[in-house]
Design the sequence.
């Protein structure tokens, strides 16, 4: 019996786990997932320092109009001066260490300097414009935990704490196999009846976008020998994705050969459209996704099934892309009993997200996939949707801008 969409996605996520870990240079770590706990090896800031360009002073000397004698200069990176005497001040730049006895900084704008003396304009309070040692993060504090996505902010933190290498979850190596006698590689001669193996490039792009490492196995022909040879190679990767050869045709041999090679089928056929013939299996712990060959079905089943699996394998704690709610701007009809993945155009109108079909939804129509910036998931138990109804949408804009 075919699986429901939710069953299929749950089965996949239950059967994949984060891969091992590796040490990676911080320069290469952005966008990946941390596999270690990081504690602060020192206080941040490391020492009391000035938040402004100005004068380090003793606040008790600083009644409005007071005149102080300038006795030194501390740039950022300078070493702290000896203690500042009463009624004296030291010129200090942002980041410069606060000298002993000083307890405030007066910004240049609030003072006037003439001939080695500074006259203060306004009021000065203790602690003004000082960034105190450890006020941001104290030594020993736990700052990052496994599962954290490394964005520029986390990279900044790790670099500040002097970490040139970090332990990350490994990126999966994903073998991609296209199957079909009708396929030729991009750039090869297109004789009558042939089409370009476009799915391989599209899947490789999708794998890269998620952060995996695609590996193209080329084309297996629709015979057992060719499939066997290529599938054996594919089963050496962390993940194997095949496209086509999984529906009911005479030459749809992929699942049979996978079974022969020790891949245990977890499900075949899902109550979704497009993508119904999708199969998922395991060889030990290695996941094998057999996606339907129609390019739109291949892309949508990657987005809804393979993407979350790869993210989980890379250590993401929330591998399912969050849905956004968007209101339909037109009626939609679908078949009962199947989830329909509707290719949609999402726009923002008066602050709300609104969606409409991107056009012809037949699986063979590629242009409406290209036009779409979202995939709406329409539930299996409904067949009519009216304008204004909210639906769940996965944005596929790349950078989630709408
Ligand atoms: N009698 C039935 N026929 C079909 C069924 C069914 O249940 N019963 N399911 C249909 C559905 S739904 C889909 S989806 C397709 C999927 O079939 P396959 O995964 O076995 O794929 P193929 O038939 O080999 O190819 C489908 C289509 O996609 C083109 N294709 C294949 N590989 C590539 C590639 N690498 N790059 C670009 N395009 C590719 C292929 O030429 C076909 O046009 O089956 C329906 N039929
Ligand atoms: O389910 Mo098929 O994937 O419509 O094209």
Sequence:
């Amino acid at each position: 019996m075919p699986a429901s969409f939710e069953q299929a996605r749950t089965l996949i996520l239950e059967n994949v786990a984060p891969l091992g870990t590796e040490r990676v240079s911080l320069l290469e770590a952005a966008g990946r997932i941390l596999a270690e706990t990081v504690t602060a090896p020192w206080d941040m800031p490391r020492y009391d320092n000035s938040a402004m360009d100005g004068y380090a002073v003793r606040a008790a000397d600083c009644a409005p109009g007071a005149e102080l004698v300038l006795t030194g200069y501390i740039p950022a990176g300078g070493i702290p001066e000896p203690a500042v005497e009463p009624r004296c001040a030291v010129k200090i730049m942002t980041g410069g260490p606060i000298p002993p006895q000083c307890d405030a900084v007066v910004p240049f704008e609030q003072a006037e300097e003439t001939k080695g003396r500074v006259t203060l304009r306004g009021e000065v309070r203790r602690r003004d414009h000082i960034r105190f040692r450890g006020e941001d993060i104290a030594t020993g504090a736990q700052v990052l935990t496994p599962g954290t996505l490394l964005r520029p902010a986390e990279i900044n933190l790790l670099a500040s704490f002097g970490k040139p290498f970090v332990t990350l979850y490994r990126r999966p190596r994903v073998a991609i196999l296209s199957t079909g006698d009708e396929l030729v590689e991009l750039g090869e001669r297109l004789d009558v009846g042939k089409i370009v193996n476009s799915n391989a490039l599209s899947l490789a792009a999708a794998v890269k976008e998620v952060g995996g490492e695609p590996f193209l196995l080329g084309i297996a022909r629709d015979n057992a020998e060719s499939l066997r040879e290529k599938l054996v190679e594919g089963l050496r990767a962390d993940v194997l994705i095949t496209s086509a050869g999984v529906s009911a045709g005479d030459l749809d041999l992929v699942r049979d050969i996978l079974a022969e090679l020790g891949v245990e089928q977890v499900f075949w056929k899902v109550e979704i459209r497009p993508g119904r013939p999708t199969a998922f299996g395991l060889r030990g712990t290695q996941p094998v996704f057999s996606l339907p060959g129609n390019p739109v079905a291949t892309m949508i089943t990657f987005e809804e099934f393979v993407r979350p699996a790869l993210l989980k394998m890379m250590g993401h704690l929330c591998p399912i892309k969050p849905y956004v709610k968007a209101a339909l701007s037109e009626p939609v009809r679908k078949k009962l009993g199947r989830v329909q993945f509707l290719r949609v155009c999402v726009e923002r109108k008066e602050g709300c997200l609104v969606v409409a079909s991107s056009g012809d939804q037949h699986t063979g129509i590629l242009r409406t996939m290209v036009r779409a910036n979202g995939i709406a998931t329409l539930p299996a138990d409904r067949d009519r949707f009216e304008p204004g109804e909210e639906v769940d949408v996965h944005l596929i804009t790349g950078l989630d801008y709408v």
The domain at 324-395 is CATH 2.40.340.10 (Beta-clip). The chain is about 20% helix and 30% strand. Residues 48 and 60 are 19 Å apart (CA to CA).
